[in-house]
Structure formats: C-alpha cells, structure tokens
C-alpha cells in the first residue's frame, strides 16, 4: 500500500467512527446530524467515490440504509470485493440480507461515464428513474490533478434521473483531511462553481472530526443552470 492509499484508508476509518456515532447515538444528540436531518435514512441510496482498498465506510453504513454502491478504480476495488467474497453467508441469513445492500463497482473519474448507473440502481428503488440520494467521498482529493475529474463526476451523479437542485436533489457529503492548503483551496473554488457548499460546523461532528483535528466535512448541492 502506498502513502496515498494508506492515508485514504486512515481517513476512512476516522469517518467510519463518526458515522457510527451519527447512527447510533440518541436521536436528540447534536452529533446525529445527517440522520436527524434525514440526509441519510433507512431508504437512502448512497454512492461512495473512492472507497479505497478497505471499503470500510460501506461495510459499516450499508446495513443501516437502503443500498450502498462503493466505487473506486479497478485496482483499489479488488480488495473489498475479495474481502466480501470471503465473508459470504447463506442466502437466508440476516447477514446475507445486509450484505446484499452493498455493491462494489469500478469507476474511474477520468475515463468512465456515469450514464450506466441508473441501470445498476433500477432494482434498488421502486421508481422508473432511480437516482443517487447521497454522494459520499472521504479524503479523495490529495493532489490538484484529481480536482476536475472528481468535480465533474459529482456533477454527473447529481444529474442522474432528472433530479434538479430544487426537486429532490442529490446531496454530496465530502470529508477531507487538510494536508495541503493550496490543494484544498483549489478544490473548494472549483467545487463552488458548480455546487452550493456548506461546511458542517465542528460542534455537529464527533470528537475525532472537531476543530484542530485536521479534518473538515462539507455538504454540496448542485447549482441550477441559472446560478452557474
């Protein structure tokens, strides 16, 4: 595992801890931000960009939602796919039902299109126009060359099935480790051209993601054509 993969896995583990708190704490807790505000619920379809070699976020979150599609490039996606194949259970077991909610797909931001995703999601929801409810990314932007393809992929995913910024929009949740101020600023400028962006206040995050932790979480909604 190279330094980039190791850092991405560590960030995924940190975000996993946050998501467990978000889901498991009492409903009135201020840390229960995404679930309490129905950004993610038991019916949600979540697509993760850059799930990494462990796929740890999907393994934790998939049992608690409607369906989870974990994506990364072909090399990284082989790890979690092999792990899942080794832990298969009988079709009638509760664990098998949970595992059926989690799928892995190779998706290269630079070379792959997202037009085929509705076909993969069609059976996930009782709808002729299935869409992704939440696009999730954890520590995916660590050099400037990734900014443009990442942002374009987020845009394309948010336009699936005719969703609009005012009609049941797809929500992007972007968690990042603050390594390079220049890279972060370049990403934020590029992302804000296409998305309305909010930083999740530190008081709504778990201790591992609060101020001075080196992490930030942003939420984005695609701008309308009139806003761009």
Comma- or semicolon-separated keywords:
228 residues, alpha/beta, 7-stranded mixed β-sheet, 8 helices, 18% strand, disordered N terminus
Description of the molecule:
By secondary structure, the chain is of the alpha/beta class. It is 36% helix and 18% strand. The protein has helices spanning 3-24, 33-36, 56-61, 74-86, 94-99, 117-121, 147-158, 181-194, and strands spanning 45-49, 67-72, 102-106, 134-138, 171-177, 195-199, 215-222. A seven-stranded mixed sheet has the order 3-2-1-4-5-7-6. α7 packs parallel to α8 (181-194). The chain is globular. The N and C termini lie far apart (40 Å). Mean pLDDT is 76; it is low at 1-31 and 92-96.
Global structural class: alpha/beta
Averaging pLDDT over every residue, what do you get?
A: 76
As residue ranges, the low-confidence spans are 1-31, 92-96
Helices and strands, in order, run as HHEHEHHEHEHEHEE
Shape category: globular
| Order of strands in the sheet with most strands | 3-2-1-4-5-7-6
Tally the helices: 8
Helix content: 25-40%
Count of distinct strands: 7
**Radius of gyration using CA atoms only:** 17 Å
Largest sheet: 7 strands, mixed
Note the beta-strand portion: 15-25%
End-to-end separation in angstroms reads 40 Å
